[in-house]
Design brief:
The complex is a heterodimer. By secondary structure, chain A is of the alpha/beta class. Helices cover 46% and strands 20% of the residues of chain A. Chain B has two domains: 189 residues, Helicase, Ruva Protein, domain 3; 202 residues, Orthogonal Bundle (Cyclin A, domain 1). Classes of the chains: A alpha/beta, B mainly alpha. Chain A: Belongs to the small GTPase superfamily. Rab family.
């Protein structure tokens, strides 16, 4: 499955990704230029292993021309904002529109309020974000890449949702919908072994599988 | 000890002395020349010793690098023609300074890109020259970086220069590489700031446009070079559907975003500043071509190929020992597929990016084109070396000769 991480500059997209794929967090973070990417697998309750390719995109607006190309192949999107920066939340609507314009119709979207460890600096209320998510029919979670809370949950929840959606679809019909998603899954299944980055993640999930 | 690079190559002090001598020869005359003589059209009127000296400086920058911050502080402004660029923008700078823009402390009208600059500046300069910076030093370097970015943008005009994420990595490199905080009397700016203005005017001109189109075109040119020199690899990457985006940060940041060792970055910059503005494309293509075997072994999966390509420069894979080889191969590539041909079919790129040599520098002295004479141009430690004294020494001699021949013929072609 291909999932994209989108949202304003400096909300913590890259750290969410490194927390999820390598269990790493860096205070000495770096801006992302263009698109970067990492992979990881998780296992579902019914024992299936889901392999995810996660594309991390630059937050600056000028890069959208290129990052939006990655929305197209994506079955999921994590739309990230920073709970301590209101502007990053007000821009969520624009990001959502970007997705509607460029992504496939059935893309699974999750709103992610990151930096939940910054309690004393919070300016975006959980209820407001929850309400916004509900209005727009997307799911919502608050995370902290720094203390790792809810990061695993965010990714596995969106991946599971995608999995359920895809398997429902392929059960219902073998036509258009599944025809589009299947090759993608095939693609992803080849990725896993190659990268160093997966080495940490791989043994853990194998244990889970068995 | 005999095989160690320090023994067979220049010793750093001999090299330092050699480059310093070249600079001494031209810096004075350049300073004394009236600014009118430094404009592009007045190139032919530059004294012969100045143009000769410039060529020898370029040669030194390409073959072994400029080695120390003290030398770069004097050589980069010359190579980048900061005197010319800053004289063109001096008026705007003064106006901008009066408004308080670029002071880096938000006095006066806020620039369009100021917030993005702040976000990126806050996420760089964790280390410099191989050591972690203390809080105080980091903050002062970051303030200098903010000043470099905003002053350069204000000086060239917001309507012409659009800040992009990655430019801050170039700026951070300049702040570290040119740590002089006093303003130069020639440019009216700090050396780092004048260098940024010069870079934005030519070498980075394709990337600081409003949209992303020119950047994408530059990335395509990298793949075109890969295709020209390594057709099998190119076909393989194309079939796998690998997008050229892996080289985007390389071009946008002149490799500074991807390489942690600043000395390696500065070696690449020495070479970039001494050559055609498009040389960075050749360096990028060379890095890909160098990895051909490794890439071909990965299978045709787009994701893993993309991942490997984006990490070609990570974890010190390009080192101070290997960087000279990359520069040499990039020069050979530029010789085989010269920029004027590579960029001929398109008017996408700004003129300042495609034009070379920078006209004010004049044409190369004739004696530099002859191989025999070239060897006489080499500094004593190299001239004294015999190929028999070791393969590495032979490589250095062959390498330098090739570099000189390539550069000379390249310049002649362009004239």
């Amino acid at each position: 499955y291909t999932v994209v991480l989108i949202g304003d500059s400096a909300v913590g997209k890259s750290n969410l990704l490194s927390r999820f794929t390598r269990d790493e967090f860096s205070l000495e973070s770096k801006s992302t230029i263009g698109v970067e990417f990492a992979t990881r697998s998780i296992s579902t309750d019914d024992g299936k292993v889901l392999k995810a390719q996660i594309w991390d995109t630059a937050g600056q607006e000028r890069y959208r021309a290129i990052t939006s190309a990655y929305y197209r192949g994506a079955v999921g999107a994590l739309l990230v904002y920073d709970i301590s920066k209101y502007e990053t939340f007000s821009n969520v609507e624009r990001w959502l529109k970007e997705l509607r314009d460029h992504a496939e119709n059935h893309i699974e979207v999750m709103l992610v309020g990151n930096k939940s460890d910054l309690r004393h600096l919070r300016v975006v209320m959980t209820e407001d974000a929850e309400a916004f998510a509900q209005e727009n029919g997307i799911s919502f979670i608050e995370t902290s890449a720094l203390d790792a809370s809810n990061v695993e949950e965010a990714f596995s929840s969106i991946l599971t949702k995608i999995y359920e959606k895809v398997s429902r679809k392929s059960m219902n019909s073998d036509a258009a919908g599944s025809g589009k998603t299947k090759p993608m899954a095939n693609n992803a299944s080849k990725v896993i072994v190659v990268d160093n980055e997966n080495d940490d993640a791989a043994p853990a999930k194998k244990k889970k599988c068995c | 000890m005999e095989g160690s690079p320090r023994k067979v190559g220049y010793t750093s002090s001999a090299r330092w002395k050699h480059v310093q001598e070249i600079i001494e020869e031209i810096e004075g005359p350049l300073r004394e020349l009236p600014k009118a003589l430094l404009t592009p059209d007045a190139a032919e009127r530059l004294p012969r010793r100045v143009t000769d000296g410039l060529w020898r400086l370029r040669h030194a920058a390409l073959s072994g690098g400029l080695t120390t911050s003290a030398i770069r502080l004097r050589a980069w402004p010359i190579l980048l023609s900061t005197y010319v660029h800053s004289s063109e923008v001096a008026a705007q700078t003064a106006a901008a300074a009066r408004r308080g823009v670029g002071a880096g402390i938000g006095i006066g009208a806020e620039l369009r890109d100021e917030q993005q600059v702040a976000k990126d500046v806050a996420r760089c300069l964790w280390e410099a020259n191989g050591r972690v910076l203390g809080d105080h030093e980091r903050e002062s370097k970051r303030a200098a970086l903010t000043d470099v970015l905003l002053t350069a943008i204000a000086a060239l005009g917001e309507d012409k220069v659009y800040y992009y994420q990655g430019l801050h990595d170039v700026g951070a490199g300049l702040v570290v590489g040119l740590p002089e905080t006093r303003k130069s009397t020639m440019t009216g700016m700090t050396p780092a700031c004048a260098a940024m203005v010069a870079l934005l005017s030519a070498r980075l001109a394709p990337y600081c446009t409003q949209g992303l189109e020119v950047t994408l075109a530059a990335m395509d040119k990298v793949m075109e070079l890969v295709g020209a020199a390594a057709p099998a690899l190119h076909a393989y990457l194309t079939n796998a559907g690998v997008p050229a985006v892996f080289c985007m940060p390389w071009l946008l940041s002149l490799f500074a975003h991807n390489i942690d060792d600043s000395e390696v970055v500065f070696r690449l910059w020495d070479a970039c500043f001494a050559t055609h503005p498009a040389f960075v494309l050749y360096l990028a293509a060379t890095l890909v071509i160098d990895a051909e075997d490794e890439l071909m072994a990965l299978g045709d999966d787009m994701a893993s190929l993309h991942h490997r390509l984006s990490h070609l420069l990570a974890d010190g894979r390009l080192s101070q020992a290997s960087v000279d080889g990359v520069i040499l191969r990039a020069l050979q590539l530029a010789h085989a597929f010269p920029p004027r041909e590579l960029l001929a079919d398109t008017d996408t790129f700004p003129h300042a990016f495609t034009a070379w040599p920078e006209r004010w520098a004049g044409s190369p002295p004739a004696h530099l084109t002859e191989l025999g004479a070239l060897q006489a141009e080499m500094p004593p430690p190299l001239r004294a070396m015999r190929p028999a004294s070791g393969t590495r020494a032979a490589m250095v001699v062959v390498g330098l000769t090739t570099i000189a021949a390539i550069v000379a013929s390249w310049f002649l072609q362009s004239e």
